[in-house]
């Protein structure tokens, strides 16, 4: 691969005699990995995934020997696993080691959702995750990723970092997986190579400081910031990490790593950080640093000492007093508060319902808790998010198990014919896992799979694309 000469000259001082090994690894093939969704993969243990070896810093990460056609595996769409680059899974290790109490967590730059997936599996039970993404279309991709996982303790928003200054000290943990120059993605993404320039590196470094400065007031004193990039240069990494500690007021925090993982330490003695280089670790380029915000002091000075509050306050949404119509949809209805927004019905985890409602009043919400469905006249149309939720009560609707070809046809949003099935709303399952709802009207079933998520390819692979062996 032809790397920009300025990029090569910028890595030489960092890597010295290892530069050639690094460049040759960066020209090689990226490894294929996925992380199982612990909330859904219970019936299919890790061992049932075809030839694979574990990602050592992750409890649920696996390397595959080849890249299957994931699109045609129904369990991929059912949220059984997420295709994720291995280095990124290090966030799971950091959170598991440092966060031991339920936490309110913000993943600020979250789309497409890889690190949110890691956070959700590692945060202690009883935590809340706010997954935020600035770019609207990408915020919907994030919501799709999170919905498929089936967690209820999540809010997905589409805001700028500074919008969160309306919530001073709300978050125990903030992850800023910052937009960066993407040098670590060079072997996966040719566009990242084409777009690389020193000016872009400098621009990214400045933008990262702006984002960090804007989000700082929302982090609790004593709270943790995880700052990460998928690039190698020190301007966006060590320099910015040092700037956070000095200018925003924070101390570096370490986590343990095993020598065998091949993780390198920061290239600057003033900074604690973790680096993933492709000639040393099996994964793409990554830099991670962790800082604890000072207990008191400078933090709010960055916003002029004022608690900035958004004026864009929507009308508060009412909680429903009569829960009877929807309670049977969930396995643990008493753990939820039911809420109506227009015709849409949501279930929010009791312990975070007020926080979610407050956030929803001031932010652009894409999804929250579990969307149960929509009222249309006398009809109630169950939502796809309910089908994906691990809270779904499988006895709320009749179940219809489909075979592989029917599952792919459903995921393409084709209308399907179900032999001997009752009329009305049904849950389609594949290998016992919910794929979504249909409304069976007798001679055919109306497909309720979300149009924007459908498999667009008409091709069907010769071999069933299935990750799990029977
Ligand atoms: C490195 S990606 C995040 C990847 C994601 N955390 C994951 O693991 O799947 C950075 C994200 O930041 C978003 N972004 C771009 N500019 C931003 C800004 N000024 N403030 C916040 N986020 C921004 C991008 O749209 C992009 O989705």
Automatic annotation (TrEMBL):
List of catalytic residues: 230
Binding-site positions, S-adenosyl-L-methionine: 109-115, 133, 177
Domain annotation SAM-dependent MTase RsmB/NOP-type: ranges: 1-294
InterPro entries: Methyltr_RsmF_N, MeTrfase_RsmB-F_NOP2_cat, MeTrfase_RsmB-F_NOP2_dom, Nol1_Nop2_Fmu_2, RCMT, SAM-dependent_MTases_sf
Pfam families: Methyltr_RsmB-F (PF01189), Methyltr_RsmF_N (PF17125), Methyltranf_PUA (PF13636)
One biological process term in Gene Ontology: RNA methylation
Molecular functions per Gene Ontology: RNA binding; RNA methyltransferase activity
Protein keywords: Cytoplasm, Methyltransferase, RNA-binding, S-adenosyl-L-methionine, Transferase
Cross-referenced PANTHER family: 28S RRNA (CYTOSINE(4447)-C(5))-METHYLTRANSFERASE-RELATED, NOP2 YEAST -RELATED NOL1/NOP2/FMU SUN DOMAIN-CONTAINING
Family listed: Belongs to the class I-like SAM-binding methyltransferase superfamily. RsmB/NOP family.
Annotated protein name in UniProt: 16S rRNA C967 or C1407 C5-methylase, RsmB/RsmF family
Protein's organism: Proteiniphilum saccharofermentans
């Amino acid at each position: 691969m032809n790397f920009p000469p300025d990029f090569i000259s910028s890595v030489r001082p960092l890597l010295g005699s290892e530069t050639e090994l690094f460049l040759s690894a960066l020209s090689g093939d990226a490894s294929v990995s996925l992380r199982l969704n612990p909330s859904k993969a219970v019936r299919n243990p890790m061992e049932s995934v075809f030839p694979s070896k574990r990602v050592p810093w992750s409890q649920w990460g696996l390397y595959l020997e080849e890249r299957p056609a994931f699109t045609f595996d129904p369990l991929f769409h059912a949220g059984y696993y997420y295709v994720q680059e291995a280095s990124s899974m290090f966030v799971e290790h950091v959170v598991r080691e440092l966060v031991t109490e339920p936490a309110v967590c913000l993943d600020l730059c979250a789309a497409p959702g890889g690190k949110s997936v890691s956070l959700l599996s590692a945060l202690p039970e009883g935590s809340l995750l706010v997954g935020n993404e600035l770019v609207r279309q990408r915020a919907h991709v994030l919501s799709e990723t999170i919905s498929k996982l089936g967690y209820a303790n999540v809010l997905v928003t589409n805001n700028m970092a500074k919008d969160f200054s309306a919530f001073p000290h709300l978050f125990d943990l903030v992850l800023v997986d910052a937009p960066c120059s993407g040098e670590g993605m060079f072997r996966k993404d040719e566009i990242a190579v084409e777009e690389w320039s020193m000016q872009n590196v400098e621009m990214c470094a400045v933008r990262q400081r702006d984002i960090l400065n804007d989000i700082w007031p929302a982090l609790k004193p004593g709270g943790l910031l995880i700052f990460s990039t998928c690039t190698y240069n020190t301007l966006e990494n060590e320099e910015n990490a040092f700037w956070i500690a000095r200018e925003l007021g924070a101390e570096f925090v370490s986590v343990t790593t095993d020598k065998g993982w091949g993780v390198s330490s920061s290239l600057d003695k003033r900074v604690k950080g973790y680096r993933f280089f492709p000639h040393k670790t099996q994964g793409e380029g990554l830099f991670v640093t962790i800082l604890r915000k000072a207990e008191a002091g400078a933090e709010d000075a960055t916003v002029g000492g004022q608690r900035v509050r958004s004026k864009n306050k929507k009308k508060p949404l009412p909680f429903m007093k009569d829960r009877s119509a929807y309670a049977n949809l969930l396995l643990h209805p008493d753990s939820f508060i039911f809420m109506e927004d227009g015709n849409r019905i949501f279930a929010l985890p009791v312990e975070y319902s007020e926080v979610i409602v407050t956030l929803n009043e001031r932010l652009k919400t894409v999804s929250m808790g579990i969307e149960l469905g929509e009222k249309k006249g006398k009809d109630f149309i169950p939502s796809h998010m309910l089908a994906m939720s691990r809270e779904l009560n499988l006895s709320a609707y009749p179940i219809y198990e489909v075979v592989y070809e029917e599952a792919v046809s459903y995921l393409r949003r084709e209308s399907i014919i179900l032999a001997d099935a009752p009329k009305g709303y049904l849950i389609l399952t594949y290998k016992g896992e919910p794929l979504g709802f249909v409304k069976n009207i007798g001679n055919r079933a109306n497909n309720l799979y979300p149009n924007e998520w459908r498999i667009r390819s008409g091709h069907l692979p010769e071999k069933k694309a299935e990750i799990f062996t029977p």
